[in-house]
Structure formats: structure tokens, C-alpha cells
Specification:
Strand content: 15-25%
CATH class of the largest domain: Alpha Beta
Shape: globular
Number of helices: 15
Radius of gyration: 22 Å
CATH architecture of the largest domain: 3-Layer(aba) Sandwich
Structural class: alpha/beta
Helix content: 40-55%
Number of domains: 2
Number of strands: 13
Strand order of the largest sheet: 3-2-1-4-5-6-7
Distance between the termini: 29 Å
Amino acid sequence: MGARQLRILCVIDHFGAGGAQRQLSELASGLAVRGHHVEVFLYHPRHDFFLPPVLQAGVSVHTCDRSEVGVVGVARRLTALARRTAPDVILTYLDMPSLLVELVRPLIRGVTLVVSERASHMNDRSAFRGAIRRLPHNLADHVVSNSYAQADWLRARAWLKTEVSVIYNGVPVQEFDPTPRVPNEPSKLRLLGIGRIGPEKNLVNLVRGLDLAGRELGTVPRVDWVGSQDGRTSGLQYRSRLDRVLADHPAVSDRWRFLGRRADIAALLSGHDALVHPAFHEGLPNVVCEALAAGRPVLASDRCDHPHLLGEGRRGLLFDPESPSDIARSIVDMARWPDARWRDASRDARSFAEQNLGTDRMIDAYERLFLTLRDGDGARE
């Protein structure tokens, strides 16, 4: 390995089927394989979709059930674990786990705390609440964002004194087949969408945009949507609205399929021409990274890091997610790409993924950061 061994404690809510959970699962497993002593603390143990590979990599997982012990009980058990195991580094993922660790940080001496922001400030209910939520980041030694857009926003906040860096998500690039697909004609365009069905994913405007695109192309492109239903009240209400909009646009409804949650994402990407991702806001979406690894161009909202991921048009097209007509414009433009443009976009997408989005690259970046902070006496007393 060449680097000294670290004791690392990772804190997250659960290992259910979520993007952040998948990223931490791969990071914890990768660090353990490299010889570091890695442990994980979580407090919703019933959600365990990504747990098996973590255990297989030799990571110790400590759990308590928040529904039984409450937030205070979780904080106490986390503090006791950190004192007992004396990690060199604590890494937190997501808002609530990060807040828990930040608040008990004064009770844990001699540890380096790294907080990983996984979302965008655009998801904040208000600017004030967003600032209040992130003020405790000043108790951390370092903040990592998985997008340049969020990192820039954090650095511009006068109340945040902690250093911020960017580490992109990692995907297993070599598991994706980058063979290009070229539609025989615009009406044969097959689009894949991936994401939990909820208001932030913006499916209503996508349906309206597809309807407008179909009028210009003569046929609505086929869309397969992969993802579970957001079970919150807002998610269920949004699904009812989406179903009504689909019923009002039968030309789209006839060409739209809900596939539910799927594990065969690589195969699905191979069977589609492009990914469509109309979300209003993101941190760094795993699905876009996976599409690029598969050599698939992407239609995406012009938000957050999407312009950087798509290379200002080289690897896909951007649109205003608030505008169905602009969504339609991007779909029509891509459907009419000449064959050479499809092949160029596919090659560029795969090349970008290989250079910037590999799992090993992500693990390397976190490992370097941890070693730098510890060797530089980054831990606060």
C-alpha cells in the first residue's frame, strides 16, 4: 500500500438503496481492502441493501435503532463507540449523520472529522435554515462536496471557516459496456430515466416536454423510468399528479414504462440510446456518472454540475427544467444528431468517465485527504 494504516469510522443513516449509501459502501470497502481499519456506524439497520459487500470487505458495522433509542440515544452510542475505538478519522455522509457527529465532536478528542456534503443548497427550504444547518460544519476539520457548484457555494459563505474540497462520486467504469448506440431515425430514440419518483425529479415537465417533442418528430421517443416510489406524502401526491398528466397526454403515456427499482442498470443503459435526467437540483447524480461510463449521451437540467459533466454539449445537451418547451428542444436536437455526433459523444462520455469518475480515483482522493489531515496534525484537541 505504501501509506500508513488509518483507523477510520464512517457514519451514515443506513445502507439502503440510495446514492449516498452506495458511495459510502464502495468507499468503506475500498479503504478496507487497502489495509485501513474501517468501521461503520448507522442507526436505521433495517435498510441493508448495500450491507453485504461492506461486510465481505471486512468492515465492522455497528448499529443501533433510532426508533428504539431516539436521537439522544444514537448520539450517546456514537460517542461511546468513538471513544472506545479511537479512530484517526471520522467521515460522515448526509445531513443528519453529519449534524450528530458535529454536535458530539467536543466530547471526542484527538480525532479528525471530515464531513461530506452529498446534496445541493438548492434543496434547502430556506436560505436561513440552510445556513443554520451548516454552521456546525465549523466544528469539522474539512468539508468535502461531491460537486463544484456546491463547493463554490460553501466557500462563498462568510460563516464557514472550514476548508472545502471536491471529490467526485466513483462508479465502477469497467463494468459498463461503452459500445455506442446510434438510432436509425429520430422517431426510434429510446431514453432511460433513473430516480426515485418524487417532485424534485421533475417528471411532470418531462412528460409535457416529450409531448411537444413528439409533435415535431412525429413520434414520442420511448421512455423507460427506473426507480422506486417516494413514500413520503409529498412523493405520493406528486405521483398522483404525474399519473393525471400522463393520462392527459396519451401519446406520451403509450410510450412510457415504469420499471420500478432495478439492479441491472448497466444492461439497461446498453439497451437505450441516452439518459434523460430532468431533476431540479442534484449534488452529483450517480445515474449521470453511470450513463457516461456506459458511453451514453445525457439530456439533463442546466443545474449544479451538469454543465461540467456534459462538457458544455460534447457529452449531451442541457435544458431549463422549468420549461417543457426547452426540454422538448433538447430532445428534438439530440434525436436529429447525425451518426458521427452520436459516436463522438459516446467516446467523449466514456473517456471523461475513465479520467474523472472511477471508483479507485474516488478512494485515492479520500485516502490522500485523510493522510494529509492526520500527518498535518489536522485533528483538533
